[in-house]
């Protein structure tokens, strides 16, 4: 299987700031999800006793809500360069981004596919980022009027419930896809360990994010795998 | 079961406030001392512990005559109640009489009903459990459902000494309201029956002497559009997506276990904990 073939050479993909921001984001999202479930539908009322009753669930939801707001700032402060590159890539769309999706669908269903050259973030990750940003704005923006209804006009509070609901529905769908790809989908899996350790196998990085990899090779940061091909693999 | 409504004829009320006292008394509601409101009115509006407030309105009519208007105010017991619609716990519910009541055992104090009542009626009351921990429950006029179940009338209705309030079948009460309206039209040209369509009609129906806005009531109250979008569209679609994505996840996991056998045991994952 492809994920077992990588040699030991690893390259740094994610900064510490990104790793922390991503972890805080993921954990708080998950905690928000759990603490909101019984409020969302009575199917999950059995969670109330676990969470310390409705009051406990509400308190936890608010604590994690604060945590959920922090990742942007963590990343921006600890790794402004990476953060800016992210922003820039999100608004840069080229033909290869569209090609990515055709190939990606083939890959998902097990057909033959070729890697379309991608920069640091591939088109799928960019779509994921964009939807996550939009839903985060919806969810956080609507959370405030729900938390402090006295500070907002009634209509705003009433529509906030809708926005929170829609934002959450979209977010969870995208998150499930995101997790599926990173944890279960075998060809993407090194990305999952990468986002925890910050490092990914060099060959995998080169295959998946060719343009970024080549740039880093040019800068002298990463080993040139093509040159090493005839030599013994591994460290 | 036949639907019952409370018919309130504000033109017969003399502002004695016996209904407020009867309500507090029957429902064991604590007194809520309030600041002076600038008039004889005791509380600005109904609250979680004061389900019934007599409002006093000084009104100058089109001829320049000053009129003193009274209105017994409490929950309207809407036929299409926004509070019932948005309640995530089915705590807010319709009774056999067509009225609206809170099941306190189910209520989690989320306040969704509070934010969506078009009449600003229902409120949260704060209580303390035996460990001193605070919790909240929605509270509002129950139309004395516990009395209704025993074949009695609501406490306020029983108490009223001017017959400004009556309780009976919907048909009978609406007929009375129509008759009364025709009697007072000469004296109060703006008089009307307040039984708003936008909430499917109510189970507290008023004959008002003036336009609703004079009494601080919405002219055309309705179930908030946001509540309809939220509960009839966003949430059902969301639930479907939740189900679908969970199924997809389970499916993906199973197929992965089935088709990815060779990969097992020697996966390279660089150390991080693995699901
Ligand atoms: S008891 Fe009757 S007369 Fe007295 S304030 Fe209430 S509605 Fe008016
Ligand atoms: S008036 Fe408000 S609290 Fe009473 S039934 Fe209607 S929506 Fe519910
Ligand atoms: S506060 Fe209670 S009655 Fe009101 S919506 Fe929440 S659970 Fe339902």
TrEMBL record, chain A:
Where, per UniProt, does this protein localize? Cell membrane
Which InterPro entries does this entry report, sorted A to Z?
Cyt_b561_bac/Ni-Hgenase, Di-haem_cyt_TM, FDH_cytochrome_b556_subunit
Membrane topology label: Multi-pass membrane protein
Record keyword Kinase present: no
- TM region positions: 20-39, 59-78, 127-147, 159-181
**Which keywords does this Swiss-Prot/TrEMBL entry list?**
Cell membrane, Membrane, Transmembrane, Transmembrane helix
In terms of domain of life, where is this protein from?
A: Bacteria
SUPFAM superfamilies tied to this protein: Transmembrane di-heme cytochromes
- The segment(s) forming the Cytochrome b561 bacterial/Ni-hydrogenase domain are 13-187
Q: Which Pfam families match?
A: Ni_hydr_CYTB
Q: What is this protein called?
A: Cytochrome b/b6 domain-containing protein
Automatic annotation (TrEMBL), chain B:
Q: What is its main location?
A: other
Q: Which UniProt keywords apply?
A: 4Fe-4S, Iron, Iron-sulfur, Metal-binding, Repeat
Question: Where is the protein situated, by its record's location annotation?
Answer: Cell envelope
The record's listing under Pfam families reads: Fer4_11
Q: Report the residue ranges that make up the 4Fe-4S ferredoxin-type domain in this protein.
A: 4-34, 66-97, 98-127
- Which CDD domains does its entry note? FDH_b_like
Q: What transmembrane ranges does the database entry give?
A: none
Entry-linked InterPro entries: 4Fe4S_Fe-S-bd, 4Fe4S_Fe_S_CS, FDH_Electron_Transfer_Unit, Formate_DH_Fe-S_su
Q: Does the keyword DNA-binding apply?
A: no
Q: What is this protein called?
A: 4Fe-4S dicluster domain-containing protein
Source organism lineage? Bacteria, Bacillati, Bacillota, Bacilli, Bacillales
């Amino acid at each position: 299987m492809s994920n077992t073939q990588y040699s030991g050479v690893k390259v740094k993909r994610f900064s510490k700031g990104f790793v922390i921001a991503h972890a805080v984001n993921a954990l708080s999202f998950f905690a928000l999800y759990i603490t909101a479930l019984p409020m969302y539908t009575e199917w999950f009322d059995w969670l109330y006793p676990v969470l310390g009753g409705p009051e406990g669930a509400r308190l936890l939801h608010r604590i994690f809500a604060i945590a959920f707001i922090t990742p942007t700032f963590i990343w921006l402060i600890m790794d402004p360069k990476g953060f800016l590159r992210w922003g820039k890539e999100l608004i840069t769309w080229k033909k290869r981004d569209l090609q990515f999706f055709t190939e990606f669908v083939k890959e998902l269903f097990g057909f033959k596919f070729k890697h379309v050259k991608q920069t640091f973030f591939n088109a799928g990750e960019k779509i994921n980022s964009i939807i996550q940003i939009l839903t985060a704005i919806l969810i956080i923006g609507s959370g405030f009027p729900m938390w402090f209804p006295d500070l907002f006009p009634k209509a705003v509070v009433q529509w906030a419930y809708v926005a929170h609901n829609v934002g959450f529905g979209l977010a969870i769908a995208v998150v499930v896809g995101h997790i599926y790809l990173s944890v279960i989908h075998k060809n993407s899996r090194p990305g999952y360990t990468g986002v925890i350790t910050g490092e990914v196998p060099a060959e995998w990085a080169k295959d998946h994010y060719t343009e970024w990899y080549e740039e880093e090779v040019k800068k002298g940061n990463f080993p040139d795998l093509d040159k090493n091909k005839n030599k013994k693999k591994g460290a | 079961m036949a639907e019952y409504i409370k018919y309130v004829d504000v033109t017969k009320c003399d502002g004695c406030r016996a209904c407020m006292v009867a309500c507090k008394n029957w429902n064991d509601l604590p007194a809520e001392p309030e600041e002076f409101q600038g008039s004889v009115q005791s509380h600005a509006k109904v609250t979680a512990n004061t389900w019934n407030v007599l409002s006093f309105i000084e009104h100058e009519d089109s001829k320049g005559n000053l009129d003193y208007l009274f209105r017994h105010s409490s929950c309207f017991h809407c036929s299409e109640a926004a509070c019932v619609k948005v309640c995530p716990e089915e705590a807010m519910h319709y009774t056999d009489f067509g009225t609206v009541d809170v099941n306190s055992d189910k209520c989690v104090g989320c306040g969704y009903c509070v934010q969506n009542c078009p009449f600003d009626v229902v409120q949260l009351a704060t209580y303390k459990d035996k460990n001193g921990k605070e919790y909240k429950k929605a509270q509002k006029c129950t139309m004395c459902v516990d009395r209704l179940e025993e074949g009695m009338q609501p406490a306020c209705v029983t108490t009223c000494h001017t017959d400004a309030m009556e309780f009976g079948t919907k048909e009978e009460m609406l007929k009375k309201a129509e008759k009364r309206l025709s009697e007072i039209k000469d004296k109060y040209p703006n008089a009307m029956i307040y039984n708003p369509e936008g909430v499917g009609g109510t189970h507290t129906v008023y004959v008002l002497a003036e336009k609703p806005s004079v009494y601080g009531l919405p002219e055309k109250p309705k179930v908030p559009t946001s509540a309809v979008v939220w509960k009839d569209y966003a949430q059902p679609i969301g639930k479907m997506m939740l189900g679908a994505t969970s199924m997809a996840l389970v499916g993906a996991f199973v197929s992965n276990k089935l088709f990815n056998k060779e990969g097992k045991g020697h996966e390279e994952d660089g150390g991080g904990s693995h699901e």
